[in-house]
Amino acid sequence: MATRDIYETGFDEDVRTESSANQCPECDGRVTTNAVETVCEDCGLVIDEQRIDHGPEWRAYDDEERERTGAPLTAARHDRGLSTEIGRGTDAKGNEISGQKRRRLARMRREQTRGRWRSKAERNLAHGLGEVRRLASALDLSDSVRDQACQLFRSAQNEDLLRGRSIEAIAAASVYGACRCNGRSQLLDDIVAVATVGESRVTNAYKTLNKELGLPAKPVRPTMYIPRLASDLDCSERIRRRARVLAEAAEEAGVTTGVHPAGFAAACLYTAGQEQGRWVTQCAVAESGNVTPTTVRAHYETLKEQVA
């Protein structure tokens, strides 16, 4: 008995079309093709399946707007960006909705907010990742650094490092750790300035992350701070290049071991400015490097001895 005599075509199946060009390689029977596979109607042999869909992968709601399935997964949100957001006031096309529908959406939004988190740990994760996103936006960090900081916060929660510590402190330490791992010249004071906790708590949290997670943090060198401080002081390109040469020579000589990198970079810019005849005060470079003029003066004497 043929396969077509046993199974009946349902209403939800694809319409089959007969292919008279090819015959079944096994029984020379009749071959039919639908949108998924090519099958012999007599013996049931599947000749071809999983054909490539050559149609567009986007959905078109009008002639101009084309949308795909949605945004990619991101580590910056607790649910990887898969949750549903209920809008306010307007529908998908921007039209105003009635008052009855607005009240209905408000009730749905309230219930969604209540059932959004399955546990307190997930609620803490959502709060911490929101703080990381806020800090990254305030510091104008790239999306890659932001995602690394979010992943670092996830790792800290998985290792139970949030117990007894502030979520805001761990979030700020995650941002600072991501900057250190990427070799960015980001001062801890810059992160503390936009964070909601003090410097001591952020420092302790970063030490905990560095110790427990083994962060691949790169050593901070004075040459990393030269472009940033030169931009803050509006120095010329000649002074910037000279300051970089001084900093690299000091690093090779081992003079920068155990010193404040931003303070030593400020001293290099001050020395280069003095050589080029530009009057840059020690107070100005010390303020840009967040150090005292005494620190700049001490490093300046070291640089003079090295140049001499």
UniProtKB/TrEMBL annotation:
Function: Stabilizes TBP binding to an archaeal box-A promoter. Also responsible for recruiting RNA polymerase II to the pre-initiation complex (DNA-TBP-TFIIB).
Keyword hit for Zinc-finger: yes
Protein name (Swiss-Prot/TrEMBL): Transcription initiation factor IIB
Family designation: Belongs to the TFIIB family.
Binding residues for Zn(2+): C24, C27, C40, C43
Region (Disordered): 80-104
Keywords, sorted A to Z: Metal-binding, Repeat, Transcription, Transcription regulation, Zinc, Zinc-finger
Basic and acidic residues bias: start-end ranges: 80-94
Sequence repeats: from-to residues: 130-213, 224-305
GO cellular component labels: transcription preinitiation complex
Residue ranges of every copy of the Cyclin-like domain listed in the record: 130-211, 224-305
Gene Ontology biological process terms, A to Z: transcription preinitiation complex assembly
GO MF annotations in UniProt: DNA-binding transcription factor activity; TBP-class protein binding; zinc ion binding
Top-rank taxon, per record: Archaea
Matches recorded under InterPro entries: Cyclin-like_dom, Cyclin-like_sf, TFIIB, TFIIB_arc, TFIIB_cyclin, Znf_TFIIB
